[in-house]
Design brief:
Layout lengths: L2 E10 L2 E11 L4 E5 L6 H8 L7 E6 L2 E2 L4 H6 L1 E4 L11 H11 L6 H10 L15 H13 L5 E5 L7 H16 L3 E6 L2 H7 L2 E6 L2 E7 H5 L6 E8 L2 H12 L3 E3 L4 E7 L3 H10 L4 E6 L4 H9 L9
Parallel strand pairs: 3-8, 3-9, 6-7, 7-8
Antiparallel strand pairs: 1-2, 1-4, 4-5, 9-10, 11-13, 11-14, 12-13
The structure holds adenosine-5'-triphosphate.
Length: about 300
């Protein structure tokens, strides 16, 4: 395991802002910590990177205990917790050389270029950092964080302030990093972004971990999932009557040709057969994909926090 968090708690005065949280991050996995603002995500991350003391619980990074082998465990982490700071009048290369010198582990020149290539900054390394876009700075931050070959990269709200193009690129190289064997722990309250970024995630609410599952489990539609199924036919009025009379599912009309039927995924085939059997041609059946946001709402009965963007 790249990371094992076992029952960590943070109590400030009488309040538990993180309460008995346990989870694991596997090798090469992008793992998300999701939750509304104030849920406790940053506090969990600060305890993992040892910027904050735990009240109780244990943390192991790549098998090394933060309590028993503090230096060894921290060497396994690369993190961007606050905005990364750079020397703006130095080039990207000079900034990386500076970090290379300060690194706890020796870093070769070859490794520096390998990392620059991984975050797609090799061509921009000779430019001064003050000319970098926010996305490029973010990538330089990641390069700096992984120079010493940590097994776990930790990013707190990494796409804050990035534009959609920047976010898409960021996702791309996080995937590449994970492919190269680095595990990633990323926190965010932006569900649509996390859906595209993470392999697995935990939902944190009021300091407690309430659920863990894979993104594939979340977004795969199951036979009994019930929602609006769209059917495109020749004539929505007659299609509506057919479905309502013969199958008794609620139907609403979208326009002249399309209807929405409220039914389970497994019913789509029967509805299709009934429509065709009654002489209604069916041109399209669309079952809306399940999103992380749907799942989040099922599990928490809360607003998603997307409005806080
Ligand atoms: N030093 C502190 N003293 C008292 N309360 C704190 C302290 N640090 C954090 N908290 C409280 O603990 C809760 C969790 O905060 P935290 O920053 O971990 O949440 P978060 O999930 O990261 O939220 P966000 O998405 O807004 O960053 C909040 O209610 C916060 O006010």
């Amino acid at each position: 395991m790249a990371l094992s968090v076992k029952g960590i708690t943070k109590q400030i005065r009488s309040r538990k802002i993180v309460d008995q949280v346990s989870f694991e991050v596997k090798k090469g996995e992008v793992f998300g910590l999701l939750g509304p603002n104030g849920a406790g995500k940053t506090t969990i991350i600060r305890m993992i990177v040892s910027l904050m003391k735990r009240t109780s619980g244990e943390i192991f990074i790549n098998g090394k205990s933060l309590d028993k082998d503090f230096k060894g465990a921290l060497n396994e982490i690369g993190a961007i917790v606050e905005n990364p700071e750079f020397y703006p009048y130095m080039t990207g290369y000079q900034n990386l050389v500076h970090y290379k010198r300060m690194s706890r582990k020796p870093v070769s020149e070859e490794r520096l270029w390998e990392v620059a290539k991984l975050v797609k900054l090799e061509d921009a390394l000779k430019q001064k950092v003050k000319t970098y876009s926010l996305g490029m700075r973010q990538r330089l931050g990641v390069a700096q964080a992984i120079l010493h070959q940590p097994s776990l990269l930790i990013l707190d709200e990494p796409t804050n302030g990035l534009d959609p193009q920047g976010i898409r690129e960021f996702r791309g190289y996080l995937r590449e990093l994970a492919g190269s064997g680095v595990s990633v722990l990323v926190s965010s309250h932006l569900l649509s972004e996390m859906e595209l970024m993470c392999d697995r995630y935990a939902i944190i609410e009021k300091g407690k971990l309430i659920h863990i599952e894979t993104m594939a489990e979340t977004t795969t539609v199951k036979q009994d999932d019930r929602r609006d199924i769209l059917f495109a036919t020749d004539d929505s009025e007659s299609a509506k009557q057919t479905v309502e009379k013969q199958l008794h599912f609620p139907v609403s009309i979208v326009d002249d040709t399309r209807i929405l039927v409220s039914a389970a995924y497994k019913d789509a085939a029967v509805i299709n057969a009934t429509l065709v059997g009654s002489g209604c041609n069916v041109y399209e059946i669309h079952f809306e994909k399940k999103t992380l946001e749907d799942r989040f709402l099922e599990l928490t009965n809360h607003t998603t926090g997307e409005e806080n963007q």
